[in-house]
């Protein structure tokens, strides 16, 4: 399920277990750590001396990892709420405007005096009435207002969980259990939007040392319109290496 993919780990590209992996950082490049080996740590003796520290990106604490998960999900729901609420308000404005008699009366006059051609008053009224009905039907069909409120409630749950963790009212393990429970209420994600929110959460925790996905202009432009569960973008590492960000959807 997409919701569990968002909440299980900080990095949305794969299911992870260790705290460092949850924050989007696996073994340091060139460390030689395989899938069944312990990643090299700062101070370990290698063939050519002590292993250097890979920086905060690779040494995330469990609290930092779950903070990234909470922030990414909260930003995601905040973005969805803002988008749906804005579209709903514009739809309501157009319904009221197209349904107003004054507008249907003034349009033919404006077209004649400004543009030099005449419009049939009856045709204008019919077109405006039909447009108002279609827009109202779209708003009701997609349930924009209720969906926006639902995202608002989910956003609040993630921020409250983060506050409880920082106050010490919940442990890290309790926080992870809560994230799993929240996943049950998640709808299929808008993948590119979530990757953008994950970038923001990483920057909040790690600053300039954070990994991030390089999302294209078109991806950012339509991130609230299409789910795109198989979108793929390159990941930029602050240490200079580039990885492929596998954005394929995962099932719970």
Beta percentage is: 5-15%
Mean model confidence by pLDDT:
76
Shape: elongated
N-to-C CA distance: 4 Å
Number of beta strands: 5
Biggest sheet architecture: 3 strands, antiparallel
Cα-atom radius of gyration: 25 Å
Biased composition (Basic and acidic residues): 38-47
Region (Disordered): 1-56
Biased composition (Low complexity): 10-26
Relevant terms:
disordered N terminus; elongated; 3-stranded antiparallel sheet; 2 domains; mainly alpha; 57% helix; 252 residues; 9 helices; two-stranded antiparallel ribbon
Report on the architecture of this protein.
Residues 1-56 are annotated as: Disordered. With 252 residues, the chain is mostly helical. It has 2 domains: 55-187, no CATH class; 189-252, no CATH class. The chain is built from 9 helices and 5 strands; from the N terminus they run ααββααααααβαββ. It has helices spanning 2-8, 19-22, 62-99, 101-115, 121-142, 144-167, 172-183, 191-206, 217-221, and strands spanning 45-46, 49-50, 212-213, 233-236, 242-245. It has a 3-stranded antiparallel β-sheet. A two-stranded antiparallel sheet has the order 1-2. A hairpin with a 5-residue loop joins β4 and β5 (242-245). The chain starts with a helix and ends in a 7-residue tail after the last strand. The model is unreliable at 1-10, 13-58 and 244-252 (pLDDT under 50).
């Amino acid at each position: 399920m997409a919701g569990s993919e968002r909440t299980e780990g900080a990095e949305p590209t794969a299911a992870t277990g260790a705290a460092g992996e949850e924050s989007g950082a696996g073994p340091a490049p060139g460390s030689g750590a395989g899938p069944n080996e312990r990643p090299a740590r700062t101070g370990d003796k290698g063939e050519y001396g002590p292993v250097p520290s890979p920086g905060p990106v690779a040494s995330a604490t469990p609290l930092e990892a779950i903070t990234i998960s909470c922030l990414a999900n909260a930003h995601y729901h905040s973005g969805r709420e803002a988008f749906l609420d804005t579209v709903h308000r514009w739809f309501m404005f157009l319904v009221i405007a197209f349904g107003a008699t004054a507008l249907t009366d003034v349009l033919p006059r404006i077209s004649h005096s400004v543009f030099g051609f005449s419009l049939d008053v009856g045709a204008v009224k019919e077109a405006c009435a039909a447009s108002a009905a279609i827009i109202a039907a779209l708003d009701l069909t997609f349930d924009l207002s209720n969906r926006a409120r639902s995202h608002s409630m989910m956003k609040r749950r993630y921020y409250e969980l983060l506050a409880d963790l920082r106050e010490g009212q919940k442990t890290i393990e309790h926080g992870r259990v809560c994230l799993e429970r929240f996943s049950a209420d998640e709808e299929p994600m808008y993948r590119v939007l979530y990757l953008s929110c994950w970038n923001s959460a990483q920057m909040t925790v790690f600053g300039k040392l954070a990994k991030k996905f390089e999302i294209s202009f078109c991806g950012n432009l339509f991130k609230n319109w299409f789910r795109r569960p198989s979108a793929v973008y390159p990941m930029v590492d602050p240490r200079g290496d580039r990885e492929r960000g596998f954005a394929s959807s995962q099932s719970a």
